[in-house]
Amino acid sequence: MTKIKAAKNSSKKDVIINKAAALFRTKGFIATSMRDLADAVGVEAPSLYNHIGSKGEILTVICFKVADSFNKQLEDTESENWNAAEKIENIIRFHITMMVNNFNEVFVANNEWKYLEDPFLQTFLNQRRAYEKRLITLIETGIKKNKFKVINPYVAVLTLLSAVRGLGFWQKNNKNINAKELEDDMVNHLISGLIK
């Protein structure tokens, strides 16, 4: 029987979660079986259960890992003594970095969350709504301080998040533009749509 090989500074569970994220992205959560995952990891299916309880547990770990990263970055950004435009720019850059460096996990959290089981599903949706409300508050602050155009804050947040999610097309087709140029151009374009 083959053992799960973990890279330096990562656990066997990390290996399983990374492989699962790639499979959930390409095949979908429902269509991916534990046998598929075992094959991708290179072990017998029963040995996966030594490290992870179920496919649903893996999805929960992925979704909340991504949500926690975004929430931590937003908390750090909110605490900075920056103006609204600088804060929004920082958040956009973080979203782009996550899409570039952690695409499988972010894709799964954005698209497969609906298969979470309660109470995790409700908790995840509540966190997502709270995150969007905090971004809306940042846009409202920028409008009140005369930094941003008078726009509907909800539409602005929807536009920013949708634009960054669109990086899935870049990930698939890539690659006439490097990640740094992509980030700078997207930030410039999105921020210029907000600033007066």
3D architecture notes:
With 196 residues, the protein is mainly alpha-helical. It has a domain at 65-192: Tetracycline Repressor, domain 2. It contains ten helices and no strands. The chain is elongated and about 60 Å long. The N and C termini lie far apart (63 Å). Mean pLDDT is 89; it is low at 1-7.
List keywords for this structure.
0% strand; 71% helix; 196 residues; Tetracycline Repressor, domain 2; mainly alpha; 10 helices
Indicate the radius of gyration in whole angstroms: 19 Å
Beta-strand content: under 5%
How helix-rich are the residues, as a percent range? over 70%
Give the name of the CATH architecture of the domain at 65-192.
Orthogonal Bundle
Integer average pLDDT: 89
CATH third-tier fold name of the domain at 65-192: Tetracycline Repressor, domain 2
Classified by CATH, the class of the domain at 65-192 is Mainly Alpha
**CATH homologous group name of the domain at 65-192:** Tetracycline Repressor, domain 2
List the total number of helices.
Answer: 10
Distance between the termini: 63 Å
Structural class: mainly alpha
Q: Any low-confidence stretches, pLDDT <50, length ≥5?
A: 1-7
Shape: elongated
> What is the helix/strand order?
HHHHHHHHHH
